[in-house]
Design a protein that fits this description.
Layout lengths: L4 H14 L2 H38 L15 H10 L11 H19 L16 H9 L1 H12 L3 H32 L4 H6 L6 H4 L1 H18 L11 H4 L9 H26 L12 H8 L3 H20 L7 H29 L1
């Protein structure tokens, strides 16, 4: 099985051979930063195109088909358009907080993105408290959304931001408890170790029914955290125009747009890492020939295959289910998902002790 660890170790040794340790580290940091931003942007363009095609499929339409073969260049054309659009100045808005909000949302998304293990050795940060880091950094995004709603001096943006704050803080609890169930099973918070432990059986199989319940709860709560349908109340266009980012234009609006799509990918990537084995191939104990064939598929393909499967589930739900009311949304969290998560943690403890 080929791992990108070989490439990253070779680059590290090459730089340390010809440069001092300080310069080698500086160049490595720059390369990692550029690589993260490049992959982040490319994934956003791919996700925008995929969503348009999936949406068109569900609505019996063709989707993008004019710019480039099969409409492949449409997302790039839209990106160029948004980059050259005018930044409109809003009267009586707080200009500093208005600009800071867009940066906070995108920074929270990029910091979370950097902790995802795409392959062995292909991970920007690998803390021993990786799951805690993901929960902490991803929570910064809600601060940006609240600032955007307040600083825009608009009642629609303010209502959208308040809705988003209530929604994100509520569903963060279920998300965190579902992930804690997997931490109990793995006995560690380090993402690379959690993936390594799934070499013979993914957590969703290893953890039995409690793991399956945690996976379903995480998918629902994670989807709600991305503010996408049927949980898109903060941006409900029929009530609030576009919610908390109504007054944003040009690249500042692009930051919110980019973060929304990448947050969908990040939620799917975390589900893939903690429940579906991450970059680890599918192995069945006792089926050695089958396992050897699975090992020929590159780990990166396994990771993106599982992640895009979870992304497809999110798109399927978005374009199928009608939008919830705010009371239905909060009842779903506090009266259904939260009690299930608490009971499920006890079930997982019993599973670990007796199975």
């Amino acid at each position: 099985m080929f791992h990108f660890e070989v490439v990253t170790n070779w680059i590290d040794e090459f730089l340390r051979t010809y440069l001092s340790e300080g310069w080698a580290l500086f160049i490595e940091f720059v390369l990692i930063g550029v690589a993260i931003l490049a992959v982040y942007a490319v994934l956003a363009l791919i996700l925008i195109y995929v969503e348009r095609k999936v949406c068109a499929f569900f609505q019996c339409r063709i989707g993008p088909n004019r710019v480039g073969p099969f409409g492949l260049i449409q997302s790039v054309a839209d990106m160029i358009k948004i980059l050259i659009k005018e930044l409109i100045r809003i009267d009586r808005a707080d200009p500093r907080l208005f600009r800071l909000a867009a940066f906070l949302v995108i920074i929270a998304s990029i910091c979370t993105f950097g902790a995802i293990p795409f392959d062995k050795g292909l991970q920007a940060v690998d803390f021993n408290i990786g799951v805690f880091y993901l929960l902490a950094v991803s929570s910064l995004g809600v601060v940006g959304i609240l600032l955007a709603g307040w600083s825009s001096n608009n009642k629609y943006t303010m209502i959208g931001a308040m809705r988003s704050g209530a929604q994100l803080i509520s569903y963060e609890l279920s998300c965190g408890l579902a992930l804690m169930t997997m931490v109990m099973l793995s006995g560690t918070m380090q993402l690379s170790e959690i993936v390594e432990q799934q070499s013979y059986a993914w957590n969703i199989f290893r953890g039995g029914i409690p793991a399956l319940i945690a996976f379903v709860v995480y998918l629902i709560a994670g989807h709600a955290e991305t503010n996408r349908g049927p949980f898109d109340l903060p941006e409900a266009e029929s009530e609030l125009t576009a919610g908390y980012h109504t007054e944003y234009s040009g690249i500042q609006f692009g930051f919110f747009y980019l973060a929304e799509y990448l947050n969908m990918f990040i939620i799917a990537a975390i589900a893939s890492t903690l429940f579906l084995g991450g970059w680890m191939p599918l192995h069945i104990p006792g089926w050695e020939s089958f396992n050897q064939i699975m090992d020929y598929i590159p780990p990166v393909l396994w990771f993106f295959g599982k992640t895009f499967f979870c992304v497809f589930l999110a798109l399927w739900v978005r374009w199928t289910m009608p939008r919830l009311r705010i009371d239905q949304l909060l009842n779903l969290e506090w009266k259904i998902l939260m009690p299930i998560c608490l009971v499920n943690i006890v079930l997982m403890a019993l599973w670990i002790i007796y199975v």
